[in-house]
Amino acid sequence: MLPLTSGLGDRRRGGWLGVALALLACTGTAWAEDGYALWMRYVPVDATSAGGYRAHAQEIVAPDRTATQRVAREELERGLAGLLGVMPRLRTTLGDGGAFVLGTPQSSPWVAPFRRDLQALGDQGYLLRSARIGERDVIVVAARDDVGVLYGVFHLLRLMQTGASLDRLEVRESPAIARRVLNHWDNLDGYVERGYAGGSLWDWHTLPDWQDPRYIDYARANASLGINGSVLNNVNANALSLSPDYLRKAATLADVFRPYGIRVYLSARFSAPIEIGGLATADPLDPDVQRWWRKKADEIYALIPDFGGFLVKANSEGQPGPQDYGRSHADGANLLADALAPHGGVVMWRAFVYAHDVPEDRAKQAYNEFVGLDGALRRNVLLQVKNGPIDFQPREPFHPLFGAMPRTPLMMEFQITKEYLGFATHLVYLGPLYEEVLHADTQARGPDSTVATVIDGSLDGHALSGIAGVANIGDDRTWSGSHFDQANWYAFGRLAWNPRQSARDIAADWVAMTFSRDPDVVTPVVDMMMASREAAVDYMTPLGLHHVMARGHHYGPGPWVDGGPRADWTSVYYHRADRDGIGFDRTSHGSDAVSQYAPAVAREFDDVDRVPESLLLWFHHVPWEHRMASGRPLWDELVHRYTHGVRSVETMQATWDRLQGRVDAERHRHVAAFLRIQRNEAQWWRDASVAYFQSLNGRALPAGETPPAHPLAYYESLQFPFAPGDGR
Ligand code: BDP
């Protein structure tokens, strides 16, 4: 078997050889279905669809002057070779056959007539249209800029990969959010914090001299989704990443990514002026410090002219920051913003901040810290807010800062890597989680003030807008540590482009491109994916429970976690269970976190009869007898949910088993093995949690429920010193 998929995107293999290889790849047996190709497999389409597509595929009429123009054309060639087994003629003028016509009004005379149609599109938007030019039927991929054309090509390929018709084609797309960014929590030594997909993709040691072809495939995958930024290093940053040597390495990655419309950003360590600048302070009001950052920005832009900017974690979990000098987060953010502003860079300042001395319900702290800074941040600062007020839990209410800072562009931070959702071994499709948050109504300016309208800038009229996903990408052959985790990268990218899309539709596209277009595969797999997040919530943190994972590495259950350096790093702080009841009272009678939401939302969350049951224990401390909508007492309902979570995974296993023979054996086996792990770990979660809460309330199990397999002490004794991804 040929290792065909390695370095599939290596442009040095371009031209006829690349096409020949792609054709060979399509003959069937030579294709290694190891997941490397992601959703860009370009396997042959059925004969009927192919007939329709081939009519257009005699020529590609495209400009060939810029690197982006070239990669757009090459991607189309690669796609057509795989999907249809054809090698269209490449032309810069229109010939006499059916053609795909690519370009911008400036780069192509054939696209110039569409100038007016493109006016309504935003930057990077594109138009796909079937049109007649002279006597010829063509498919036009038109945009205002080259990157828009590249995005349009990927969209066109998606249509073909999913078997859509190209007749009467009329697609207009513009990104809703300007900065669509991956955050890599990659350390300079190659370790990925909260990474479950192997080591870092970036080989800092061999950069800048060696450019791993995989960097190109990474860029292709992101461009296929419209992701246009990459923060290369961990938010728990090492100042060395700003040193001349590492900047040269980053500049090389920027060079590789540039044709694909991806800008490089770096996480900046606030104390870098001390650590690599030799200054005695990093005080943001110190003129030497200000000068240092300005010079640093100049140095970066000399190497990376389109550098995106800095991401900063400051005064959070031990990271240095402006408060070390008695200054505010605004002072800190503005210091860096002023240094970047002359070059057009932005600061993405993280709101994931909670105090050292734990004075308050942790869920309230970021809001308290930042809400008063509205209007105090420079125009090139985005405040990057995690989706919920605690920390990437299987379910959280939306963060109360969304809608609360009208004068500040707020950026979303989602986690794609599944730190709290079973790592890469659990099949949990995050599309529904993202969708739930984006569609949540903050009610900040009345109804329909959804989180999506906050972050796309439309609610308060911000041109600067952004969304970040903490990447689940590593050097594992599958990129994401499992086949199904690729779907989370994919869904993040698609929703970043258009946060109003449905998670189900996105899943359907992904399955069709990744596994099979056969509806007998797509339908059950999509159903399985759509149910998977709720399954994980049920077996891990039902009814609004949160942060009950094992300490540190967060692998497996740890509802008993207590003691240690700070209360809000323990589980008992969050669930507050005892003999009589369970849940965190965040109502107006408790920590009053509810008051951080707009009044209509606050009233709903505050009222035990109106709060969604899925968030009950997030906002309320209730007795074990509390009557649930099902008619069951809370305790019975809790156990029922845990068990239901396990059963849901069994249903997923059964679905997957039935697909044997319809999905290639290589990936089928891999997924089946991971589902077995998930099934066993779901049972572990259920049993450990039931045993623990039962030890507090002394209640009998509801009728029909199986007792945990082991006594509580057994679950408490389990140790996993080498669980992956732990912070260090
Ligand atoms: C937590 C992670 C930790 C990160 C932190 C952050 O456990 O590794 O550094 O978030 O977002 O969820 O800064």
From TrEMBL:
| Membrane-spanning segments | none
Q: Where is the Glycosyl hydrolase family 67 catalytic domain?
A: 160-479
Q: Which residues form the Alpha glucuronidase N-terminal domain?
A: 38-156
> What is the reaction catalyzed?
Hydrolysis of (1->2)-alpha-D-(4-O-methyl)glucuronosyl links in the main chain of hardwood xylans
Domain Glycosyl hydrolase family 67 C-terminal residues, every copy:
481-704
**What EC number(s) would the UniProt record show?**
3.2.1.131
Oligomeric state and interaction partners are given as: Homodimer.
Q: Which family does it belong to?
A: Belongs to the glycosyl hydrolase 67 family.
> What name has this protein been given in UniProt?
Xylan alpha-1,2-glucuronidase
Q: What is the lineage of its organism?
A: Bacteria, Pseudomonadati, Pseudomonadota, Gammaproteobacteria, Lysobacterales
